[in-house]
Amino acid sequence: MNKLAPSILSANFAALGNDIETVLKGGADYIHVDVMDGTFVPNISLGQPIVKSIRKATDGFLDVHLMVEEPIRYIQEFADAGADLITIHVEASKDPEAALQAIEATGKKVGITLKPDTSIEAIVPYLSRVDLVLVMSVEPGFGGQKFIEASLDKVRKLVALRNDHQYHYEIEIDGGISLDNIEKVSEAGVDVFVAGSAIFGQADVYATTIAYKKKLKALDGA
């Protein structure tokens, strides 16, 4: 089943609880939480206290994407704050294996991701142990960027690897997703679709969420 993961990076932080409730009512499956440290990526966003506050306000699935140097330092804190899935960047970790083990030890779902310029081969050694692979279809760090078409080649490779080795991971994509390109992205094999400004930047967030879910449900049966 195709899943929708609105990214709160583009939400109204003055009314974050309301925005999250709105997209969940509209059918969102995950709430995507981008954590940026200003070092691994040239921007700074929310941290553990915000995740903890969100957890108190919702029982929705929190999909936490750590764009931070040496994420192993913070995994337990984000798990304690209420993350349901924690995704790390292979480029940000000196020892990705140890970071993934740290997530496993918390009992949370395990995710791995890579920047657009990083080859799929960089994460192949870890595919057998992850629950989700996030394909960045823009450069991480800022919202509202144009979709990178070459990211779909990575998606197709991940589908083939999953089929060949009977891996169990979901394939998630983040960056530049819209109602105009969601069909071809789905056809490539994506399972989870992150959308930020395309949802939260619209005048009617609820209706936009419903429109995305309707499209994804239609693609499920295609």
Report on this model:
With 222 residues, the chain is α/β, with parallel strands linked by helices. It has helices at residues 16-25, 48-57, 75-81, 96-106, 151-165, 182-188, 197-200, 205-220; strands at 3-6, 30-36, 61-67, 85-89, 109-114, 132-136, 170-174, 192-195. The protein has an 8-stranded parallel β-sheet with strand order 1-8-7-6-5-4-3-2. The model has no long low-confidence stretch (mean pLDDT 95).
Largest sheet: 8 strands, parallel
Q: In the CATH classification, which architecture applies? A: Alpha-Beta Barrel
Indicate the radius of gyration in whole angstroms.
Answer: 16 Å
Number of separate domains: 1
CATH superfamily: Aldolase class I
* Helix content class: 25-40%
Structural class: alpha/beta
- Provide the CATH topology: TIM Barrel
N- to C-terminal separation? 11 Å
The helix/strand order is EHEHEHEHEEHEHEHH
Strand content: 15-25%
CATH class: Alpha Beta
Task: Estimate the mean pLDDT confidence.
Answer: 95
Strand order of the largest sheet: 1-8-7-6-5-4-3-2
Number of helices: 8
The parts where pLDDT drops under 50 for at least 5 residues are none
